[in-house]
Fold this sequence. Notes:
The protein is mainly alpha-helical. The chain has one domain. The chain contains nine helices and four strands, in the order E-E-E-H-H-H-H-H-E-H-H-H-H. It has helices at residues 25-45, 54-79, 82-87, 102-120, 124-149, 176-196, 199-202, 207-223, 242-261, and strands at residues 6-7, 14-18, 21-24, 163-164. A two-stranded parallel sheet has the order 1-4. It has a two-stranded antiparallel ribbon with strand order 2-3. It is globular and about 60 Å long. It starts with 5 loop residues before the first strand and ends in a 12-residue tail after the last helix.
Amino acid sequence: MITLSLLFPDFDPVAVHLGPFAIRWYALAYIAGILLGWRYALRLIDQKPRFMSRVALDDFIVWVTLGIILGGRLGYVLFYKPSAYLADPWEIPKLYHGGMSFHGGLLGVTAAILLFARKRAIPVLALSDVVAAVAPIGLFFGRIANFINGELYGRVTDVPWGMIFPHSDGLPRHPSQLYEATFEGLILFCVMTWFARRRDWRERPGRLTGLFLAGYAVARMSGELFREPDSFLGFIVGPFTMGQLLSLPLLIAGIWLIVACARRKPLPDAPAA
């Protein structure tokens, strides 16, 4: 039996070389996600019911960026390699060596939302709904960067589009990064956009946040079925990976938010904060 496979394109993980400095595709993915998310968020807050000004959103971008970077890095350290980083703490700030966690980034962004909303007297769930609606943009670019880096590849497969990744065992594998970019990024963005256009969902803050949490959890848990578990972790409980286990609470919380927030009183169209 002949197994067809594709050879991984010869991508350079460094997008631009500037003398001794290197700008990596991974860094550009974060920048693109934040900038495009910011522009889309400006459109969202202009819709009724209004609850914050454009100036306030501009200020919030700094907070949320710090939340993504600090939370994502610390989450990876704590969830995936605590013993390794405890043995060598100086590796923690070396982001250029890779290692970011979505679930850690989510905690960091949540902290940024809570602190900023309290400081500016902005409805917490209304602000989190805006973040939830734009988050798939960043997820899409992040997964594309994973593919370019040839990391987080899939399990061994005999499908015709199986791909041989560098630094692997030479066997054809699922390009799971592209699967995740499609489901966590493109499809989830379309779903979030469709519901974000509905005023009955915008008027009840928290529903879009719940939809994102549940949608991401389903997409991530499904994508993990094709993704090779981290070599240093393997399967955590039976056939379940760390990504699946961390996503299960998000699914539960998301469903609860959708149901609970549907009963809330509509958010009034207040003057921009």
